[in-house]
């Protein structure tokens, strides 16, 4: 068995904490080596494949704060792809609109829009054919915008 298995945990409720996930996973799989908690998902590092198998079997579909979490092996991204974060996007923006915007630069393998509650979530609807920039409804404004 190889040490240090990483699991993907999806559909994580916003109110869940790393400590809570650590307790949940250690209760069925033994020591948790580390947790990276993001918005609505997490990565949990366990000691070995046996611990990971127990966690998947017992926790996949487990109710946490009213949501069924998804627990599965983490699959590394292919080495010839990259993932980018785009911040300050209007809440009205859809994944389809972002996909269309970025496909001019290459094949978009995956595109997710994580809805937030900050000021950028209050933007207007995005008309078809809109280009990216400060005048665009996709632009959430502010100096921290990243592409």
Automatic annotation (TrEMBL):
UniProt KW keywords: RNA-binding
Annotated Gene Ontology cellular component terms: nucleus
Region (Disordered): 122-147
Domain RRM, residue spans: 5-76
Pfam families reported for this sequence: RRM_1
SMART domains the UniProt entry points to: RRM (SM00360)
One Gene Ontology MF term: mRNA binding
Keyword Cell cycle: no
Gene3D superfamilies to which the protein is assigned, alphabetical: 3.30.70.330
The keyword RNA-binding is assigned to this record: yes
Protein name in UniProt: RRM domain-containing protein
